[in-house]
């Protein structure tokens, strides 16, 4: 036997091992194999008095009590009701692969902030080089009415936008914005003049997060509720007076997330539900009294919480990337019980959820499908593996306008019994990917953006 044969045999064996190793690595990249090899961590121990029922509990399947007056237009993130639903009825909900008629289009800077609109004006918060810009535009033409600029030097350490992430709020002649470095400002909606401003990152010694300051404040009466994540005077959550910019109260020591708080009246008590970096906090918006907390966060700190709580009746649903989805029931004594947990049926990373007649519609992170599930059990009714990736949506009547991260549009019926989707646009219509910002719908005009362009589509008959 020649000396070269052992060397050839060794080389052959080494090559075989490389092939097997490559195959194994490829298999590990499969979500199904990864879930089998690395199952989700077991749920944390229940707190005293809490329980996880084996069957869905009787729930109050009615929308939570809200003020009857709905603001006009699309004045804040997720619309006038803050739940991705539109009160408009006279809207065209079908189009061909070219999409709805385009009214105007303009180049814009970076950021994930969503457009808002009211009184014939559109506001866009974006960044060009080292300036953050709040632009006020004519809704019919896209022409500039005014703009407010100021320096911003934040740079994201990861492959994500350097902001701004937070969406403006239009309220009673004022506009409120929060920039990537934590500047909170109130401006005149008419002229863009600054009325007051604060640097919350400085005021509350906020440690730098993994990405830009990104949570959109909640407007609740005469105050803004903000998950600042400060380290001074229990300033995890703060209430800021809209009139003066002064602090009304502070609460908790929990860090900041990228989720927008939500408010509702349940059992005759007004609540604000905040998903912080640590989990869910339910508190009184009047004085910041904490009613209860429930830890619910991702295993890895850099996997930030970005999905806003969903409130329906006395149920609150929260979803966290890597962790799963949790449904709790708020009890009359201002405590809670847990209804269900889910880790495979539905998990949202940053996409909103909307509940219609007891069924939740939203985007599952793992397979990027648009899903419908029963809010009382998380039983999935159907899945749409949409070619548009994950996305956001607006409910108009009994249909969703869905806007994917691919920049494409489609229409999906809010029907738990059957998946019906239509009006899918072709690739790069109306925008190129990646498109992560939520849409706005005001006076029949649909506003969409990515980090290159803002487009206005005409859905009027």
From TrEMBL:
**Which protein, by its recorded name, is this?**
Outer membrane biogenesis protein BamB
What is the superkingdom listed in this entry's lineage?
Bacteria
Phylogenetic placement of the source organism: Bacteria, Pseudomonadati, Planctomycetota, Planctomycetia, Planctomycetales
User: Which residues are in the Pyrrolo-quinoline quinone repeat domain?
Assistant: 131-383
Instruction: Cite a single Pfam family from the UniProt record.
Output: PQQ_2
Tagged with keyword Signal: yes
Q: Which UniProt keywords apply?
A: Signal
Which InterPro entries does the annotation name?
PQQ_rpt_dom, Quinoprotein_ADH-like_sf, WD40/YVTN_repeat-like_dom_sf
Question: Which range is the signal sequence, renumbered to this chain?
Answer: 1-26
